[in-house]
Amino acid sequence: MNRARRSEPSELIAVLIIGLLLRLFAGRSSLTENGILLPGYDEYYHMRRILFTAIHFPNTLWFDSYLNYPYGMEITWPPLFDQLSAAICVALGQHSKAGIELTACFAPLIFGLIAIVAVYYIIRELFDHKVALLAAFMAALAPYYLLYTMFAAMDHHCLEVMLLIIILLFMIMAISRKEKMYLYTIACGVAMALLAYTWQGADIYLAIFLFYAAVQITMDLKEGKSSKETAIIILGAYAIAFILVLPFGNTAWLSASFHGIGAMVVGLCVMFALAYLIAKRRISWKAFPLIILLISALFAVVSEFAGGFFGVIGLIEFGMEYIWGGEMIGKISEAEPLIYDAETFYQVVFTMLGCNLLFSLGGLVASVICIRRSTGPKRQGQILLLIWMAATLILTFGQSRFLYVSTITMGILISILFFLILDLLNERSLQAGQSQPVGHSRLLAGLLFLLLVLPTALDAASFAESSPPVVAGDWADALTWLKDNSNTTSFFESPDEVAEYSVMNWWDYGNWVLYLAQRPVVANNFQAGVSDAARFYLSEDEQEATSVLDARRSKYIIVDNKMIYGKLASLTAWANEDLSTYIKREDYGSEFVATPKDRLYNTTLGKLYLFDGAGTGHFRLIYESKTLVGINPAKSEVKIFEYVPGAVIKVRTGSDQKVGALLNMTSNLGREFIYINEGTLKGDSFEIRVPYATEGRQGCHAISPYLIYSGNEAGVKMKNVDVSEEDVRSGRTIELAF
Predict the structure, then answer these.
(1) What is the pLDDT of residues 334-379, one digit of tens each?
(2) CA 644/CA 16 separation, integer angstroms
(3) CB 474 within 8 A of CB 638
(4) pTM
(5) Which helix (H) or strand (E) segment is 195 a member of?
(6) 474-643 belongs to which CATH class?
(7) Domain segments of the chain as ranges
(8) What spatial distance separates the first Cα and last Cα of the chain, rounded to whole Å?
């Protein structure tokens, strides 16, 4: 074995070490004095499921009464990522919460490194070691995949992408290495099934290989070749995958993949049968794609009158609308198209990502040139790779979430482009009579390398230097406080029964509240309960707001600054309301200024966050976080309110009077504020519902009795009234006469 050949493993190991260190560095902020803080949102529910699975291994969590309270929620996430992560913990003897959390946090990193190795062997099989090494290096840097494979990035997407790349690897190996075709076909089918056991949207990826089959059959017919081997590989892999998903085909979490894979098997059989007939009857190859298009159109029309073919058509329509319909614009940021307006156009084009997309277009051209220069199985594999890469880029423009796989694609395309340009430069040098590259050629190669690689490297460095976990700071402190200062709810460890009460929250924060505060939530990151949450926060009538809380048995309410100055567009979108009626946005070029309108002030959200519950009778501030944001005046990042019956102060006075209650308060931070509420005329007296007691001096508390006033233009009368905690909690009536 020559020296260059011997150096290949060590060079790949060097790339893996770089990838490992980068992922450890990027996830360093998750290690805190108080334990692990996960970087995002969905990670917290994955960790909840991993904890349950590690304790009850191999059983996992399929129903959670702490979600969508009080109805609970069926968990429709396929379990493989959580079970593999839990298996690692069990294998290493971890049974405590801290031990399981720390150990599981290495799983994404492991899956990310395996994906880098798979990228290397794909490109090495189709090109050479140099291109493969650069592609692996670019995969190690791939910024968006880095976010999903760094330490503590407990989201199934890391495993999803790894399995997708492994499917591609095994299929290319089956094409390239005829002597082991059956072995790689089986491995490919197993990987397809594992992908289905990881992500409900597996069919989106598997359809790429169905499209490749159509292209390859068309080319085989054009060249007068048999498609037998293509049929064995692709149909065999799908058939194995179908058999492996069959045992759970009727479950909510696998039925989509089961029906999708079954439909693809049928589609492949039709295509190969059609190709056989066309070849046997010596019909023009052009007939194949035309007939396939005709069958597809006919299938779509007939399905409208045939019940959707066992739900397959419904799944296809739902998938297309989900990816390309733009249904999530303003609701879920990661599910939005990459570019859908002028603002997102500039956000993408004039960034490092925009540079990489531009280079990727060049890489697609370079891939086509390489295909034209190749022959045999290598050419066939390169065609598959090209289709796969183009599909991942297209998916990304449908939903930006797919950047976690398309940034790997971009790295591969950039690697192919770089070495093709170098080959063209070397060919030009040889034509000029130069046997070795001269100095300026080497300089040009170095500059080209920097030009192509630097945008990815800079993005990777920026992502690795990312800010602490989103929950860190005020949110983590607030949820720890809530856990320590509210009544513990039952069934947290085994959530199969309904607990005592819930927390009203916006859906973005649901997994945080559930995991860190260990309390049931109305809405969480699966969007369950989101309609009721939006209705509550945007309600402009307290009775409507409390009716939502009563139905959901909510005892606490959490609001934060971002719900007004960042997430309000999402709230209004879910509630089908016009954002412009709540807030005025003014564009000053370098910044936007958002100014609340009267309608926002009148919502429950506005009253709670902006006015500390003033004007309400059931909501009292019990906690505010230490970080102050905004101006005039600055307000705490996070506030927690308690929903109470409230004492009723009944004031007998003239109907021409204006009656109200005023209370001087101080928050848990020592900030002084005033609670005020107006009375409502009912019969011959006014009623004022108030949520605060005047006794006690701990936490958020009153610093004086209520000042009850009654007056008009002729004058004002005032009296002081004390209200006990029992008055507030029992809804007791206190009578007062002027």
Answers:
(1) 667 777 777 777 878 888 998 999 999 999 999 999 999 998 899 9
(2) 56
(3) yes
(4) 0.90
(5) helix 181-196
(6) alpha beta
(7) 474-643, 647-737
(8) 103
Lowest mean pLDDT among 315-319, 345-349, 489-493, 679-683: 315-319
Residue 667, Cα to own-chain centre: how many angstroms?
Answer: 35
How far apart, in whole angstroms, are the C-alpha atoms of residue 195 and residue 210? 16
| Side-chain-side CA neighbours of residue 213 (13 Å) | 30
Q: Residue 644: helix, strand or coil by DSSP? A: coil
d(CA 44, CA 420): 44
CB-CB contact of 88 with 106 (8 Å): yes
Note whether 474-643 and 647-737 share their fold.
no
**Any idea what DSSP says for residue 179?**
G
Contacts of 557 (CB under 8 A, 6+ apart): 503, 504, 505, 549, 608, 619, 640, 641, 642, 643
- Radius of gyration of the chain from its Cα atoms, rounded to whole angstroms: 31
The pLDDT confidence band at residue 1, using thresholds 50, 70 and 90, is: very low
112-143 per-position pLDDT tens digit: 999 999 999 999 999 999 999 999 999 999 99
SS3 of 281-330: CCCCCCHHHHHHHHHHHHHHHHHCCCCCCCCHHHHHHHHHHHHHCCCCCC
DSSP string, 557-612: EEEETHHHHTSHHHHHHHTT--GGGTEEEEE-SS-EEEEE-HHHHTSHHHHHHHHT
Q: In angstroms, how far is CA 632 from the centroid of its own chain?
A: 34
In the CATH hierarchy, which top-level class contains the domain 647-737? Answer: mainly beta
From residue 501, alpha-carbon distances to 364, 638, 651 in Å are 56, 21, 33
Tell whether the model's pLDDT for residue 203 goes beyond 90: yes
The CB-based long-range contact list for 542-546 (8 Å cut-off, 24+ gap) reads 542/604, 542/616, 542/617, 542/618, 545/604, 546/618, 546/643
Give kind and range of the element (H or E) at residue 371. helix 352-373
Q: Count of alpha carbons within 13 Å of 314, Cβ hemisphere only? A: 10
**CA–CA separation, 150 vs 158, rounded Å?**
9
